[in-house]
UniProtKB/TrEMBL annotation:
Protein name, UniProt field: Endoglucanase
Keywords: Carbohydrate metabolism, Cellulose degradation, Glycosidase, Hydrolase, Polysaccharide degradation
Sequence ranges assigned to domain Cellulase Ig-like in this UniProt record: 23-100
Domain Glycoside hydrolase family: 112-564
Length: 576
């Protein structure tokens, strides 16, 4: 059993304020061989910096600042302190004489170990329909809520065998984000990202314990956690026809400070959709091959569910989830997350890829013909490259695959990775995330994490360690080398979110926020109309409970964070 403790060095409020304002750096720390840089905003060259052990003593290193290739997007000149020669384990701080010191940071070979486990343990904290015992949840223990044993069929989901108002059981799964609902589309990419991490690094994850109730059984903990959601997803498939309901939800969001055990709103299964059904098919097909070595019966259940979903989607290729239209036709109105998607070809291609890999059936391969080759970063609404990643990972095992086509897929991946790497070197923050203002969307931090996965895949194709450095640069961005000075992961770093838009946290106000969660990050659209300190794209973030547009947590943001940080550890420690 493993209860995690989290790295947040003790500092006074004055130190935190001055350190964050002066230096922007990875507040958690660095592996010994990692590139180590910090940024300072100043109109003039600050001169030089000193590196000291955090406990004090004589300087270990004196260095000069170099100008960044560009100003920040707010127009501030940026200066770079490079202290990559520091290799010795310890706790350190940077200093500009007469101006102040940085937040403390560590250097050691396991500097990301706790973050790696916490980013996955976050999914345990999101479990619905079960108590979280203190043995595993520590001070964040809570009573279970949303048993979901009597979920009502919404009129939009009614069928012959399941009329409107009938009740079905759909327990388990993860709460989607800061709310208490469960959505197949977002569960799809989140679960698939965890499964893909295991598929890429099986030896590493076989050894990784998370301190969850299933720890110690024959299944790796990451697969145990994914299984908790997979079993819920199975309940979302209509046994009569194989179609999959879009979501399980209350009509409106629960109150912000209501604990799960006290939430009593009626829950509904809402309309089947083609997007949800294809996402389900893809995830179940991938799960079938990964769980097969542990349970042939379980794997068969997943595969049969995937193939039935594929068949339904082929018969119903354009059933879109349009919530406003649904509300004009049915009662009660539904006002929770829509996850509407008007383009379904990427879902179809993802499902075809996973089914082909798991079955070898050439009919699924043929469905991939003429698939677009241009790289597109995965997101909940753009999932095609989840399938391409899987094809690349399993290339050696696949028969009857057009290798020339797959070669073009790999070239497209490397072209995008090279482009981002080249442009990153021209930015003020020296991170791929800040190469374009278009990256700063709702959930922008997941863009940074998914870019990190792209770089890991590029490294595995080429062996070019420069791609690992680019992946680490985006992790540095997430942990503090950014325009706001925040480490965007709760519980990690000297300045991290204290008021995330997260009902589980808001319901326990006397406790720190649950650790290991990646908040959404800067979002200049500011859809929540909260008070923001800036509308500059990379500064448009506010650590307030009301800010669902910049400070919410979500399973599809945490999954790529978990892949990135665990993947970096697995790759650099050669535990793939």
């Amino acid at each position: 059993m493993c209860l995690l403790t989290f790295f947040s060095p003790t500092s006074s409020a004055e130190q935190l304020a001055s350190g964050t304002a002066l230096f922007r750096l990875n507040q958690l720390g660095y592996a010994p061989e990692q590139r180590k840089i910090a940024l300072v905003f100043a109109e003039e060259n600050p001169g030089y910096f000193l590196l000291r052990e955090h406990s004090g003593g004589d300087p270990i290193l004196k260095g000069s600042f170099t100008p960044a290739p560009a100003k920040s997007w707010s127009g501030k000149p940026v200066w770079i302190a490079n202290f990559s020669t520091l290799k010795k384990n310890g706790l350190y701080r940077l200093e500009i004489p007469g101006r102040g010191s940085s937040l403390p940071f560590a250097v050691n070979s396991d500097v990301y170990g706790k973050l790696a486990r916490a980013s996955l343990k976050a999914f345990y904290f999101q479990r619905a329909s079960t108590d979280l015992d203190a043995q595993y949840a520590g001070r964040w223990a809570r009573r279970g809520g949303h048993a979901d044993r009597e979920v009502e069929i919404h009129p939009s989901a009614a069928g012959t065998s399941r009329p409107a108002g009938a009740t079905v059981a759909s327990p388990g799964g993860w709460y989607d984000a800061g709310d208490y609902n469960k959505y197949i589309v977002n569960s799809g990419i989140a679960t698939a990202t965890l499964l893909s991490a295991y598929e890429r690094y099986p030896r590493y994850f076989t050894r990784l314990e998370l301190g969850i109730p299933e720890s110690g059984n024959p299944l790796p903990d990451i697969l145990d956690e994914a299984r908790y959601n997979l079993r819920w997803m199975l309940t979302m498939q209509d046994p009569a026809d194989g179609g999959v309901y879009h979501k399980l939800t209350t009509a409106r969001f629960e109150g912000m400070t209501v604990a799960p055990a006290d939430a009593g709103g009626r829950r509904y299964l809402v309309q089947k959709s083609t997007a949800a059904t294809l996402d389900f098919a893809a995830v179940m097909a991938q799960a079938a091959r990964l769980y097969s070595p542990f349970s042939a019966e379980e794997a068969d259940k997943y595969l049969r569910a995937a193939e039935r979903a594929w068949t339904w989607a082929a018969q119903n290729p354009g059933i879109l989830y349009r919530q406003e239209a649904l509300n004009r036709k049915y009662d009660p109105d539904i006002h929770t997350g829509a996850y509407s998607d008007e383009y379904l070809e990427d879902e179809r291609l993802w499902a075809a890829a996973e089914l082909f890999i798991s079955t070898g059936n050439t009919a699924y391969r043929d469905a991939l013909q003429n698939a677009p080759i241009d790289y597109q970063l995965p997101s909940w609404s753009q999932v095609q490259w989840l399938g391409h990643y899987s094809l690349i990972r399993r290339e050696q095992e696949l028969k009857h695959l057009d290798l020339a086509w797959l070669t073009e897929i790999k070239r497209s991946l490397l072209k995008e990775a090279e482009r981002l790497r080249h442009q990153s070197a021209q930015t003020a923050y020296q991170a791929p995330m800040v190469t374009s203002k278009t990256h700063f969307v709702w959930g922008s931090n997941s863009v940074a994490a998914n870019q990190g996965i792209l770089f890991l895949e590029a490294y595995h194709l080429t062996g070019d360690v420069g791609f690992l450095h680019s992946a680490a640069d985006n992790l540095d961005y997430l942990l503090g080398r950014n325009a706001t000075g925040y480490s965007y992961v709760t519980g990690f770093g000297g300045k991290s979110p204290q008021h995330p838009h997260h009902r589980l946290a808001a319901a326990q106000p006397a406790l720190p926020p649950l650790p290991g969660f990646l908040v959404g990050g800067p979002n200049p659209a500011q859809q929540d109309n909260c008070d923001y300190p800036s509308d500059v794209a990379d500064e448009s973030y506010t650590d307030t409970l009301c800010s669902y547009a910049s400070n919410e947590i979500a399973i599809n943001w945490n999954a790529p964070l978990a892949y990135l940080v665990n993947g970096l550890i697995a790759t650099t420690s050669k535990q793939q």
